[in-house]
Design goal:
Elements lengths: L2 E2 L2 E2 H32 L6 H19 L3 H22 L9 H23 L15 E3 L4 E3 H23 L1 H11 L1 H6 L4 H23 L11 H14 L4 H21 L7 H12 L9
Antiparallel strand pairs: 1-2, 3-4
Length: 294
């Protein structure tokens, strides 16, 4: 059997595919972060908490109201997005003219409140979310047995990321959002409700995080701290791709997931730090990120 670095090629290909699944989550989460930072200039440290809320919304919707997975894909992001809009109107709008550090600290505190509330209400132990019947089973790729649900996660993530990039970069709505960042007073003079636009932008960004939480619910245990394990990696992904660069976040998220998967096969001890090593190298060589503007 053909080997690379002493590891069978089939094992490497299987791990790369699993890495692509992780990369799909990285891409989707970093997309929301990039949207919020690129259009609002806010470092949203509560992103992992909103991801957790999305998973809990799906789980509790199923347990309490019988809301199935497909309905949760729509209802959970809308619910969490509405909560994000309320948070922006009550809290975030007061720190826009201050140093970015204040926004980071505020969202960090918001994340602690969300996590503490969930732990108090549901405990620290996790609960599993069932895989929907239509996505159960697996397909034989020759080199691995790939669960259909994980294939669905990759496809859904690519479609969502591509659609979001198109809306922001190639439509009139996206041009208006970017204008609000560059010259809000001028845009308001043309009759655009800039505060409402900013609130909707934040709500859309956290809705993307919640959508990632719904997609992750059948894959991982739904716990109050499930966002903690991802948020630091996702911030590293955003820094590597370029703060505020939507395309950079998506490409970097997918690529880093694959690199992480490859590292787990070749040198497992480095798999937990490889993303941060790459981030350090990128910051030294190109501080603005691979796709960011200087």
């Amino acid at each position: 059997m053909t080997q690379v670095f002493g590891v069978p090629v089939a094992v490497i290909l299987g791990q790369l595919m699993l890495g692509l699944v992780n990369g799909a989550f990285y891409a989707l989460l970093s997309l929301g972060l990039a949207v919020i930072f690129g259009l609002m200039g806010v470092v949203n440290f509560a992103h992992g908490a909103f991801y957790t809320l999305g998973a809990f919304a799906a789980l509790l919707g199923l347990k309490w109201f019988g809301v199935n997975y497909w309905a949760a894909l729509v209802l959970a992001p809308l619910t969490v997005g509405a909560l994000g809009i309320v948070s922006e109107r009550l809290l975030l709008r007061h720190v826009y003219k201050l140093e970015p550090l204040y926004g980071l600290l505020l969202t960090f505190g918001l994340a602690l409140v969300v996590e503490g509330t969930l732990r108090e209400g549901f405990g620290a132990t996790g609960e599993s979310y069932p895989v929907p019947r239509a996505l159960q089973g697996a397909v034989n790729l020759g080199f691995m047995i790939l669960p259909i649900y994980r294939a669905w996660v990759i496809l859904a993530s690519l479609v969502i990321c591509g659609t979001t990039w198109f809306l922001i970069e190639r439509t009139r709505l996206g041009a208006t959002l970017r204008s609000a960042t560059e010259n809000a007073p001028l845009l308001q003079a043309f009759g655009v409700n800039v505060p409402l636009l900013m609130a909707a932008t934040y709500g859309g960004g956290v809705a993307l995080a919640a959508l990632a939480g719904v997609l992750a619910a059948p894959v991982v245990l739904v716990t109050p701290l499930m966002g903690n394990s991802l948020v630091t990696v996702v911030f590293a992904v955003v820094v590597i791709g370029g703060m505020g660069s939507i395309l950079g976040s998506v490409v970097s998220g997918l690529a880093l997931g694959i690199i992480e998967g490859f590292t787990k096969v070749v040198y497992p001890e480095a798999s937990n730090v490889i993303v941060f090593v790459i981030m350090a190298v990128v910051l030294i060589v190109r501080p603005a990120g691979l796709f960011g503007k200087e």
